[in-house]
Each structure stands twice: as structure tokens, then as C-alpha cells.
Design goal:
The protein has 15 helices and no strands. By secondary structure, it is mainly α. The protein has one domain: Na+/H+ antiporter like fold, CATH 1.20.1530.
């Protein structure tokens, strides 16, 4: 319990510091940064599996709550960009996979789940469930997310006056959320993992809660999102759990992984810029809006930039969320269709 308490305390301190300086994904990346440094310094840290799984369920409910019934009325207008999103994921994943296999010397499984432009926790959970190295995958995605959410918002901040917000933007707090809505969200967090295990989904706590939450919100049964207080706690706990995995890992391996992941981040950003430039004249959507919609960064961060600049936030948020949902549900399926992985490591 002392190891768990230390991990969570360090995670909360890191998240608070990152939030204070308006860093991207502050509570998750701050918690991960502090606990990773402590783990590499030899501190005894631990986050139990039951706690991590519970927090993954919260994340799944939060992602699913971003959908709503109004999506049915607008999604038909976005046929070109949605098809473009599917092609974009395939092209970026393919380029990243080749880079990681040939230059990064990752094995097939780790290359695959690292190259997919999904969320840090989602891809780590899926990769781990399929037998990958969660430390390698999580650190690589953390570098990519940090790179993207610093680079793109900083560009808009310097040249278009955007100022990022450090707080989670998920909806009203516990006091503002009706009891029946809280009960529905709790049902998704509890019943979703049971559904996920029953259907043998990968990372069932995440994907099951996500599927059930999406179904309730898109049909209009549920209307509220996860209270921001719970989102902060979930991000701190998940960040701390990722950092705690680095206990006993050599520092030299961390440095090498950061270098490889930085190269992958550059490939993804360049691919996003080129894809957005090519798709803009075909879709009639401005390049800047497409860039935010396709950028392999955070849903909240890209949506907030679009809101601050007066872009189509619903368009950006929907494409960002669909990107995450697509890779969560399709990544394990396509991985099973690949040839057996070669045991080539770094």
C-alpha cells in the first residue's frame, strides 16, 4: 500500500505541476513523467491491476460520452473526410510501422501498436492485451502525444493567438450532474467490462465500457459526460500506472526509445500536413480544420484549439473521436490478419 500511495502522490504532484504551466494532457503526462523519473531513480512504486482496469473503464465511458444523437444528422455531410480518415490511418500506420521495424528495430507486435495513431492508454492496453511490451508502447505514445500537442497548439498560439486550457473539458461536475445520469455512467463503467469479457474483446475494461457508453449516448438514453473530477483522478492513476512500469528498466533503453519515438512523431505530423493539404480541395473543408481533425494528438486539445479559433469544433471532435474508436476496434482485428511476428527486438 505504501508503494501504491507513493505512486499516486507523485502522480498527483506531477499532474498539478503540468496543469499549472498549461502543459498538454497535464494530469496524465505529468503523472507519468514524475513516476517514470522516480521509478528510474529506484523508488518502489506500484499500481494494482484492479485499480488500473477500473480507471480504463472510466476512460472508456468518457470517450463514449462524446457522441450524441445529433451525430446522425451531420455525419452524412462528411463522407469525403470520413473516407479520407480511414485512408489516412492506413497510410500513417503503414509508414510508421515500416520505420519502427527497419530503423527502430521493434518487433512486429510492438511496431504495430506503436505506429497506430490512437490514445496512449488505449493503445497500451490493447498492445499489452495482445502480448506487447506496455512500457515500450506507452513511452512511445507519450512522446508522440507530447510532440503533437505541443507542436500544433504552439503553432496556432504563436501565429493565431490560441491559449490552451490545462483543465479537463468533459462537462459538469458531480454537483451539476443529475443522479440518474451518474447512475447511467456508473452502469457503463461496471457493465461495460462485463460485456467486454463476455464478448472476448481486447482490453475489455476499456472497449466494453466504451461500447456501452457510446450506445447509450448516441441513442439519447444518457446525456452527461464523466465529471471532470473523476477524469482528473483517472488520468493521474493511469499516468502513475504507466510510470510505475519503468521500475528496473535501464535508463539507456529509455533514451533510445525517446529518440525512435521522436522520429515517428515527425513522420506522423508531416503525413498529417500533406494529407490535409491534399484533402482540402476535394472536401471543401479548410486546411486548418482538417489539420486539427486528423492530427494524431489529443481529442480534448485539438477540439479546444478549434473552439478557440472559431473552427467547426463538432467536425474536429467527431473525426478525432472516430479515429480513436476505429483504431481501438479495428487494430486487434487487422493484427490477427498479419503474418506471425518475428522476434526482432531493439
Amino acid at each position: 500500500m505504501r508503494r501504491v500511495a507513493l505512486a499516486l502522490a507523485l502522480g498527483a504532484a506531477g499532474g498539478a505541476l503540468f496543469a499549472a504551466v498549461k502543459a498538454p494532457l497535464p494530469w496524465m503526462l505529468g503523472a507519468m513523467a514524475f513516476t517514470t523519473v522516480a521509478a528510474l531513480a529506484g523508488a518502489g512504486l506500484a499500481v494494482p491491476a484492479w485499480l488500473r482496469n477500473s480507471l480504463l473503464a472510466v476512460l472508456g465511458v468518457m470517450l463514449g460520452s462524446a457522441f450524441g444523437p445529433e451525430l446522425f444528422g451531420r455525419i452524412g455531410q462528411w463522407t469525403v473526410t470520413l473516407l479520407g480518415l480511414l485512408a489516412y490511418i492506413a497510410v500513417v500506420c503503414g509508414a510508421g510501422y515500416v520505420y519502427l521495424r527497419r530503423l527502430g528495430r521493434y518487433d512486429t507486435l510492438d511496431s504495430y501498436f506503436t505506429a497506430i495513431p490512437g490514445g496512449l492508454n488505449e493503445m497500451t492496453a490493447l498492445g499489452h492485451a495482445m502480448g506487447g511490451d506496455p512500457r515500450l508502447i506507452s513511452l512511445s505514445h507519450a512522446v508522440r502525444l507530447t510532440f503533437v500537442v505541443f507542436t500544433i497548439p504552439v503553432w496556432f498560439r504563436l501565429f493565431q493567438g490560441y491559449l490552451p486550457s490545462a483543465g479537463p473539458q468533459t462537462g459538469g461536475g458531480f454537483a451539476e450532474t443529475a443522479p440518474v445520469e451518474l447512475a447511467l455512467l456508473a452502469a457503463c463503467a461496471i457493465g461495460g467490462p462485463l460485456l467486454g469479457r463476455l464478448c472476448r474483446m481486447p482490453a475489455p475494461h476499456l472497449t466494453g465500457a466504451l461500447l456501452l457508453s457510446t450506445a447509450l449516448h448516441i441513442t439519447g438514453v444518457a446525456h452527461s459526460s464523466v465529471p471532470p473530477e473523476l477524469v482528473v483522478m483517472a488520468q493521474v492513476g493511469l499516468g502513475a500506472s504507466l510510470g510505475a512500469r519503468f521500475v528496473g528498466v535501464p535508463v539507456r533503453r529509455i533514451i533510445g526509445t525517446i529518440g525512435v519515438a521522436s522520429g515517428l512523431s515527425v513522420i506522423m505530423i508531416l503525413g498529417t500536413v500533406l494529407w490535409s493539404l491534399a484533402l482540402a480541395p476535394l472536401s471543401g473543408v479548410p486546411f486548418e480544420t482538417l489539420l486539427l481533425a486528423f492530427a494524431p494528438g489529443g481529442l480534448a486539445e485539438m477540439s479546444l484549439v478549434s473552439l478557440a479559433l472559431g473552427f467547426d469544433t463538432a467536425f474536429v471532435a467527431t473525426h478525432q473521436l472516430l479515429r480513436v474508436l476505429l483504431v481501438i476496434f479495428l487494430a486487434p482485428l487487422f493484427f490477427r490478419l498479419m503474418p506471425p511476428r518475428a522476434n526482432v527486438t531493439q
